């Protein structure tokens, strides 16, 4: 079993008021020197079976058509090895 | 024979009944459509109403856009079926790419609920012909994700082709002094597709159809009388 992670971010040119609100709170918490924050979404897909080229292509299509709206967002797809949990 | 106008109910739709009522008040016959049903029951036009379908999960309108009823709506809208998207319905239309651009959270991060002044920028669509070009109207605006965004190319194209159907009235004497209510680019409140059969807007015309309630105006009624005249005279 493998995990595929899809990260979705607003396109750089689009205003992110949530990220700005987070950034503005940082000095109050004593975090200096962070000039910008942008907030995105992370999807963790647990895939049954091998993550081969065909499976990745399907996930890419899924991300492009559903998980992200490519009119306003960019996305990346990456495979993550799942550490074997102690059973 | 009057026109039959369908209103889709998604899980989480809120304004489907108000929209049916507005259609009835305009003199047309409202037809309830169900999100799981591909059958549009041979209606002459479709309204996608306001609300929070699927709780706005993922993105507003993103999950509804893949519902069975939308398969038929998308196919028939491309063939000329008149479709109006109000608020969440507008979000569904952008997610379905029947209208360009996208909808994001209000720039001030607050829910908004107020009477909103708009200017009718295109009185040539199937849904706006009972307005005067440039007419200033006031109808309720209530949403979380009302910020219209599009890339510069799309904005320029919409402006050049007169496809901005409604703009928030942010300047001048008639404006309410609060400016742009949600950070929408170019103060865009609603747009139309190239053919003028698909229109989407954030404010709610269906809540401004009776003199007794709300702001006491019927500024939203022409949406429904416009389409009725087009359909009956067709």
UniProtKB/TrEMBL annotation, chain A:
Q: What is its main location?
A: cytoplasm
InterPro entries linked = PurS (IPR003850), PurS-like_sf (IPR036604)
Q: Which GO terms describe its biological process?
A: 'de novo' IMP biosynthetic process
Report if keyword Cytoplasm is assigned: yes
Subcellular location field:
Cytoplasm
Q: What is a GO molecular function of this protein? A: phosphoribosylformylglycinamidine synthase activity
Which GO cellular component terms, listed alphabetically, does the Swiss-Prot or TrEMBL entry include? cytoplasm
Q: Which pathway does it operate in? A: Purine metabolism; IMP biosynthesis via de novo pathway; 5-amino-1-(5-phospho-D-ribosyl)imidazole from N(2)-formyl-N(1)-(5-phospho-D-ribosyl)glycinamide: step 1/2
Q: What is its EC number?
A: 6.3.5.3
Reaction equation(s) it catalyzes: N(2)-formyl-N(1)-(5-phospho-beta-D-ribosyl)glycinamide + L-glutamine + ATP + H2O = 2-formamido-N(1)-(5-O-phospho-beta-D-ribosyl)acetamidine + L-glutamate + ADP + phosphate + H(+)
- Keyword check for ATP-binding: yes
Q: Which UniProt keywords apply?
A: ATP-binding, Cytoplasm, Ligase, Nucleotide-binding, Purine biosynthesis
EC main class here is ligase
What Pfam families does the record tag this protein with? PurS
Q: Which family does it belong to?
A: Belongs to the PurS family.
Primary role:
Part of the phosphoribosylformylglycinamidine synthase complex involved in the purines biosynthetic pathway. Catalyzes the ATP-dependent conversion of formylglycinamide ribonucleotide (FGAR) and glutamine to yield formylglycinamidine ribonucleotide (FGAM) and glutamate. The FGAM synthase complex is composed of three subunits. PurQ produces an ammonia molecule by converting glutamine to glutamate. PurL transfers the ammonia molecule to FGAR to form FGAM in an ATP-dependent manner.
Q: How does it assemble?
A: Part of the FGAM synthase complex composed of 1 PurL, 1 PurQ and 2 PurS subunits.
User: How is this protein named in the record?
Assistant: Phosphoribosylformylglycinamidine synthase subunit PurS
Q: What is the organism field in this record?
A: Streptomyces regalis
Automatic annotation (TrEMBL), chain B:
Concerning SUPFAM superfamilies, the annotation shows: Class I glutamine amidotransferase-like
Q: Give the EC number(s) listed in the UniProt record.
A: 6.3.5.3, 3.5.1.2
InterPro entries for this protein: Class_I_gatase-like, PRibForGlyAmidine_synth_PurQ
Signal peptide positions (record)? none
HAMAP family cross-referenced by the UniProt entry: PurQ
Q: How does it assemble?
A: Part of the FGAM synthase complex composed of 1 PurL, 1 PurQ and 2 PurS subunits.
What name appears for this protein in its UniProt entry? Phosphoribosylformylglycinamidine synthase subunit PurQ
Q: Which organism is it from?
A: Streptomyces cyaneochromogenes
What is the phylogenetic placement of the source species in the record? Bacteria, Bacillati, Actinomycetota, Actinomycetes, Kitasatosporales
């Amino acid at each position: 079993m493998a995990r595929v992670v899809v990260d979705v971010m607003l396109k750089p040119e689009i205003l992110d008021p949530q990220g700005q609100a987070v950034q503005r709170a940082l000095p109050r918490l004593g975090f200096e020197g962070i000039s910008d924050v942008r907030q995105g979404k992370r999807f963790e897909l647990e895939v049954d079976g091998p993550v081969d080229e065909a499976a990745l292509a399907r996930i890419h299509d899924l991300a492009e058509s559903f998980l992200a709206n490519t009119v306003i967002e960019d996305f990346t797809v990456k495979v993550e090895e799942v550490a074997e949990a102690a059973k | 024979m009057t026109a039959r106008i369908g209103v889709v109910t998604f899980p989480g739709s809120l304004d489907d009944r108000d929209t049916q009522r507005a259609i009835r008040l305009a003199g047309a016959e409202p037809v309830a459509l169900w999100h799981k049903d591909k059958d549009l029951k041979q209606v002459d036009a479709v309204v996608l109403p306001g609300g929070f379908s699927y709780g706005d999960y993922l993105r507003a309108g993103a999950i509804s856009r893949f519902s069975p009823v939308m398969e038929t709506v998308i196919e028939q809208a491309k063939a000329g079926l008149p479709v109006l998207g109000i608020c969440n319905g507008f979000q569904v239309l952008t997610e379905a790419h029947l209208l360009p651009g996208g909808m994001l959270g209000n720039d001030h991060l607050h829910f908004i609920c107020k009477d909103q002044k708009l200017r009718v920028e295109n009185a040539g669509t199937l849904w706006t012909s009972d307005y005067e070009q440039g007419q200033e109207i006031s109808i309720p605006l209530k949403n979380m994700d009302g910020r219209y965004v599009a890339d510069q190319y799309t904005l320029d194209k919409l402006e050049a082709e007169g496809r901005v159907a409604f703009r928030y009235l942010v300047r001048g004497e008639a404006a309410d002094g609060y400016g742009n209510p949600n950070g929408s680019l170019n103060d865009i409140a609603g747009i139309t597709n190239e053919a003028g059969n698909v229109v989407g807007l954030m404010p709610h015309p269906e809540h401004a159809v009776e003199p007794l309630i709300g702001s006491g105006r019927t500024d939203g009624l022409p949406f429904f009388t416009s389409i009725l005249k087009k359909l009956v005279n067709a």
